[in-house]
Description:
This protein has helices at residues 39-52, 79-89, 107-117, 131-145, 160-168, 185-193, 217-227, 252-259, 291-308, 315-326, 328-352, 357-360, 373-381, 402-418; strands at 7-12, 21-26, 31-33, 58-59, 124-129, 150-155, 171-176, 200-204, 233-238, 263-269, 282-287, 366-368, 384-385, 391-393. A hairpin with a 4-residue loop joins β2 and β3. It is 41% helix and 16% strand. Pyridoxal-5'-phosphate (PLP) binds next to α4.
Amino acid sequence: MVLRRTKMQSHSCAGAAGSCTLRTVFLGHFSLPEALQDAVFAAAANAQKARDAGRHPIDGTIGVLTDDRGDPAHPLIFPCVRQAIDAMYHDWERHPGFPYSPLLGVTAYREAMKRLVFGAEATVASISAAGGTAAVALNLHLAKLMGIGRAILPVPTWPNHRQLLEGSGLSYTEIKGAMPHPPSPEQLLAAARASKDPVLFLLQANAHNPTGHQWTKEQWRVFADGVSGSAHIVLLDCAYQGLSEGVEEDRAPALLLREAGVRLLFAGSSSKNHGVYGLRVGWACAVVSSPEEERQLEQWYRILTRRMYSTAPTFGQLIVAKVQEEYQEEWRRQLGAVRTGTDRKRRVLRDAFPEWADSIEGTGLFTMLPLSAHAIARLQEDDVFLTHDGRVNLAGIPLGRFDEFLRKIRRVREGITQSPAGTPAG
Length: 426
Ligand SMILES: Cc1ncc(COP(=O)(O)O)c(C=O)c1O
């Protein structure tokens, strides 16, 4: 069937606080708002095209951990994850098959996540989710049920936060910091004060995507003090526990907010820190004050997951639970090695471009290079792929290709500086 555009009209995208106006496109049979590409997946698809054509691109696009092939289609498999799978699946006679999990997910996985983030004794309502993405979505829907109508969103952020907010029907206000730094706690608190109703703060816990910069301990404390005692809700998106500064260090904001008595929702992902991206393993949770509150919230989690996609996939939850129960030491060591590797690459990049040190400092997988769109497009012609905003996934580029990476960036910058006046600077 050939789709034919015949007519267009303007369409405001639901929930976005003025950030997005989509055209409605009248096609052969249907009319609907024009569909925009997902920025990260579109950049990743360009790199994949280069691989499909037999080339060997430098791919810093999608946020996965790779081995020395640097191919996100074959991400790093943690040896402890491989061990857990081997142990589970060596005996098909005793294999459990592929059952549905209960609506709340696999208990052993939910317990493992609770131990990792808040400690075994914590009182939380929780549910397994199809990745960190669904964990954010479930909690946004839950917040909507709690009467929240608007979110405060520090930017830049993971682009999918906007789509998830729009999908949940919340409107949102974007607050920008002095790049590459996040907006200050005071800026966010002032935005909340300007609202007559309680708001939801959608914050990243650590390893900030895309900048690598997140608040200091002191800033988290200022924020926690400012929100404590209010009706505002914080949704902490934690997709990189153990990949920023360490497993314990990376949960510190969650513990601090809980201790300050903040109304706290939490969205965890096991995708990156266990390397199980496509298995879709995540965990949504709410810190509660009583067993009755836990029961009520979990009943809502059941309803919400049933509405969205029913139960989360089981296989990955079983793997992560087994790793956490039986191979935890190995997991921490292997995760530490990944962190050391990305820290080292960050240093190499910073030493090569000291004029960009402020941007490149930070933690986790990502940094944003202050390159123009023109420079990013030129790099792409040279088979170096970043996202459109200059975000680089350091864990996607093997250390052995860093010399080539740096050389190509320099070449593009020099080429642009020497090109005729009017061309954007690199
Ligand atoms: C900030 C942030 N939140 C959530 C996620 C969701 O991760 P997933 O759904 O793959 O577990 C990501 C993944 O890139 C992320 O960067």
